[in-house]
Design brief:
Layout (H helix, E strand, L loop, with lengths): L14 E2 L9 E8 L6 E4 L2 E4 L5 H10 L4 E7 L3 H7 L6 E10 L2 E6 L11 H10 L3 E4 L21 E6 L6 H10 L5 E5 L11 E6 L3 H9 L4 E4 L4 H23 L9 H8 L2 H14 L2 H26 L1 H4 L3
Parallel strand pairs: 2-5, 5-6, 8-9, 9-10
Antiparallel strand pairs: 1-12, 2-11, 3-4, 6-7, 7-8, 11-12
Helix pairs in contact: 1-2, 4-9, 6-8, 6-9
The structure holds zinc ion.
Length: 323
């Protein structure tokens, strides 16, 4: 396993957790992906679609990336995962959900129904287990997502996400890998893909190739993880797709057309006041001017990185400082 004994993680580098050649029977599963059913995200006063992928696009991307399994883990719903599971594919789809709890997000996998949001982390994990699912803590030390962080060791989790490809800063994953090394949870990886081209950037390796074998390997704590960080180009492309998606739905609503789909995102946009939709439309036009899109990408990336670095300095540096 690759380890960085001291100092800050190197940004944008491919991570590898396995120095030996992976045998052919080792399966690859992306445990953390989103579709357009993930709802809206909020950044201060701005609201925008959290993810842009159609369920079918996630499955097709997983096929192209050579994955055996893709887990669809939308925020507080299994609608997108259930649609994807009906697609004909060589890739097995696992129905999952990234559940909002009062203590931070928890991923449930192998679900047969949706887990209610806003319970405590303990009650959410009990609910996931009662449905026959496995519970995983995503991005546990993220500086910009709700995460369980300090509570981690006290929870009855099955796995913890030690590599999240969308946390491009490298710091959040480094904290997780250092803090969770000795905890009795399966070590997992996922892309946290919010657009099709990001699927498979991060993944979990396991013994076998089927969903049942993935579940067994998680429960026996024998998984590992690998992948690469989402590129800056894909990050900027994601923000462009989100804006185009928002613009299309705003235009449909203002022109009196029907709702483009049954997502909560479209419903929220259609229900907004006309003046809010007009201001939003003007905002998307400004954002889609190439210099603005690029500048926004650079600023957002730097902000994420500096917030994560602060957290890293607070949690890791005191433990690694030389005498
Ligand atoms: Zn996520």
């Amino acid at each position: 396993m690759t380890s960085r004994a001291h100092g800050a993680p190197v940004l944008g580098k491919r991570i590898s957790t396995n120095t030996q050649i992976i045998p052919r029977m080792v399966g690859r599963a992306d445990l953390h992906t989103h579709t357009k059913y993930s709802g809206m995200s909020k950044l201060r006063f701005l609201r925008f679609p959290d993810a842009v992928s159609e369920p079918l696009e996630v499955v097709q991307s997983a096929e192209r990336r050579g994955l055996d399994i893709v887990c669809i883990t939308d925020h507080d719903t299994i609608k997108g995962a259930e649609k994807a599971a009906k697609e004909n594919s060589t890739v097995e789809v696992v129905v999952g959900e990234e559940v909002s709890t009062s203590d931070g997000e928890i991923i449930g996998l192998f679900l047969t129904e949706a887990v209610p949001r806003d319970l405590t982390a303990e009650d959410t994990i009990d609910c996931i287990h009662s449905l026959g699912g496995v519970a995983i803590a995503p991005h546990p030390f993220s500086a910009h997502c709700n995460s369980v962080a300090g509570k981690l060791a006290d929870l009855d989790l099955d796995g913890v996400e030690l590599f999240n490809a969308f946390h491009r800063d490298g710091y959040a994953n480094d904290i997780a890998q250092r803090k969770c090394e000795s905890l009795p949870f399966a070590k997992t990886g996922g892309s946290d893909a919010h657009a099709p081209m990001m699927v498979g950037d991060g993944y979990t390796t396991f013994e076998g190739a089927t969903g049942e074998e993935l579940r067994r390997t998680i429960l026996s704590r024998k998984t590992s993880f690998d992948g690469r960080y989402t590129t800056f180009r894909d990050f900027v492309w994601l923000t462009t797709l989100m804006t185009l998606n928002l613009q299309r739905t705003l235009l449909s609503s203002l022109m009196g057309a029907g709702m483009p789909d049954d997502s909560s995102c479209s419903r929220e946009i259609f229900n907004a006041r006309a003046v809010t939709r007009l201001v939003g439309l003007a905002g998307t036009m400004v954002f889609l001017m190439p210099p603005v899109t690029l500048a926004a990408g650079i600023i957002a990336d730097k902000l994420h990185s500096s917030r994560s670095r602060l957290k890293w300095k607070e949690l890791v540096e005191p433990c690694t400082a030389p005498y």
